User: What shape does this take?
Amino acid sequence: MRGNRRKTTLLLLIFAAGVLCALSLTGELLAETASAADFSRKNLPPCPACPFGTDWMGRDMLARTLAGLSLSLRVGALTAAASGAVALVLGTAAAALGGWADALISWVIDLVMGVPHILLIILISLACGRGFWGVTAGVALTHWTSLARLVRGEVLQLKETPWLRMSRRLGVSRSALLRNHLLPHLLPQFLTGVILQFPHAILHEASVTFLGFGLPPEQPATGIILEESMAYLTTGRWWLALFPGLSLVLLVVLFALIGERLRLLLSPAAAQE
Amino acid sequence: MLHRLQFTAKKLVRMALLLLGVSLTAFLLMDASPLDPLQTNVGQAALGAMSPDQVAKLEDYWGVNTPAAERYLGWLSSALRGDLGTSLLYRRPVLEVVGQRLGSSLWLLLFAWAASGALGLAFGLIAGTHRGRWPDRLIRGFCLTLSSTPSFWLALLLLMVFAVWLEVLPIGLSVPIGAAAESVTLAQRLRHALLPALTLSVTGLSNIALHTREKVADVLDSDYILFARARGEGHILRRHVLRNVALPALTLQFASIGEIIGGSVLVEQVFSYPGLGQAAVSAGLGGDMPLLLGITVATAALVFGGNLAADLLYGVIDPRIRRGAART
Assistant: This one.
């Protein structure tokens, strides 16, 4: 089984990609169903017809959960990509330029890390007037710091390697250095870093939406669903909170597993472990 | 001794600069917000029915007409004198509101901070020393699930089980409803704080446990452990592993302050616990700029203070750092 790590990881990746595609697709298709009220079947506990039950407006919780997950996925993908880009640019800039640019970027990283993420996301989301773009900007602008530090450290280390010093002396152009030496070393770490951003991004989006600073209430986001379920907690409608939250946890676990597997696979030291 | 003082002074200056940066950033972000404080707090209908005089008065109260730079500089100069302004929602000095709210959150935060650190370290040690075997797998699976669970959902679940289903614990607030402040006993307070503290402890735990595990594994793979084993030394865990893990564990512990405070925002909201996090949410939703600014600066000060404490404690714990600092 040990030699098959690559194969199982590949299978897991394909499976996860399939799940994600299916999720975002069904989420799109179910957007109508998710907000369609039907008062003839409100407050149903889970039953064969609607496995996740229905809420006080008769909306199907399964459809709402799936639509919410696909929304989370979109926010997650967007924010992970954006924060990855910020981290790559600022991390390499800090390491390559050095001097005051490095000091400034490190200072900004310390600044962003000094305020609890939730609070900073709330502030940024408020600045953008809440809603989809508010929460996306908030999550994207708070999650780049650790990845930027990682990239900075890697580039600093790479800069001093014999082969890079040698090629610099030999007159290899900057872009060729970047393309042939820096990127191949950086890319695996960077990509895993971006994928590992996903779980955090999704959770933070849900949290901020839950608090009322994110997506608007008419959208079936997971945060909204759980916020609404709070009002019905005391009346014993456990299915309103249990299933949507559980699905979110499963989605996040999937991403965390993929990221972890990829990290092990792509780092030469651990690949044979 | 002199270099320790110099080191501390340097860190303090850096911390002050960072706090300045935090306050400016938070101010600019709030200033950029297109949400009108009047519409948010007074409401469209009431605003339409008011006389222009009254509207102008309210605009003055919420600071709509003052230029941003003037407002920030005004805030800064009085902040330096220890006055963080007046909360617009609570109509009391921000410092007082923050102090009171922090006071009621403090035990929650402290308990969660200590519990997550201690449990995380213990889990990390167990998993790291049993690498690949079932305790390790169990702990890693547990940590993965925990770190993937949104804390507010966990809070909801705990509420459903303990407050609604089993009916053994109260559903929210920090004291019983309708009880006079003097008659509230310590036991009642503890009962109300139990679930929030439990939820909050879990937020920082998995990160600490997983990082400690990695570090323990690294240490166990090292040459000095091999040598110690070859010599037949006993107490390897206490003499070698714990001492070498102490430093990263300390870093993690103090780095988790921000995470715990962030988590408290969510947890306090679910449990209607009247702490700092809940105040932050209502300040944000109500457009109470001075209070939100005050809370942001106060939490940032706590986080930076934690980093400073960690930096200073390194030297206390690790003689190599102490001597290294003395030499330079």
User: Anything to note?
Assistant: Chain A has one domain: 7-15+53-271.
